[in-house]
Amino acid sequence: MIKLLRSEGFKLAKKGRGSHVKYRKGDKVVTLAIHGMGSTVPPKTLKRIFEQAGIDMSVIRY
Known about the structure:
27% of the residues lie in helices and 27% in strands. The chain is α+β, with helices and mostly antiparallel strands. It has a single domain (2-59), classed as Metal Transport, Frataxin, Chain A (2-Layer Sandwich), CATH 3.30.920.30. The longest helix has 11 residues, at 43-53. The two termini are 12 Å apart.
């Protein structure tokens, strides 16, 4: 997920003490939980991440 956001031009905006990080591109902000790195992202969560990022899911190859 982080690779995808970076390839879309998102930059790390904030890494706090907790298990979440924020990536920013212009006025778009995406919050990711990093405590489950490498695990499968549930479909609804993935959809919400794409919505926050303004990325069209139809262009993503699985």
